[in-house]
Amino acid sequence: MPDKQIDQTKVLLKFKGKYLLLKKVKDVHPEHIGGWEVPGGKIKKKEDKINAALREVKEETKLNCKIITELKTLELEKDNIKTKTHVYLAEAETDKVILSKEHSDYIWIFYKQIDELENVIYKDLLKNYLKEAEKIRN
Q1: Boundaries of every domain in the chain
Q2: Quick one: average pLDDT of 16-43?
Q3: What topology does CATH give the domain 4-135?
Q4: Is 46 left (phi over 0), alpha (psi -120 to 50) or beta?
């Protein structure tokens, strides 16, 4: 039985065919610090998961976005922490990111460029989600 359960949301945020990745400053898993990830975070008690996704994107990037669709929910267990992640594909209104203190850098990349990046958190999983996202026309 895991010591802790986290319900969270992650957003594959797209703008003109590119996806946003953020460089993480802190994490419960020390090896994730300095890694690239998509925007997202914990869902608050009684908060709707779509509202949580939109809030997290806004808090971390100051971007407004529109949810296109929900992708497959991801459940992982690592270091006795069970994480349930609701994953969304969304479209940003602009690519003008203003970072919160949670991240030190950002990059907009095409799906095909993901392999060129070092230190992507759960890279293979992210690639699978991006591959699915690429099939969705909005």
Answers
A1: 4-135
A2: 94
A3: Nucleoside Triphosphate Pyrophosphohydrolase (3.90.79)
A4: left
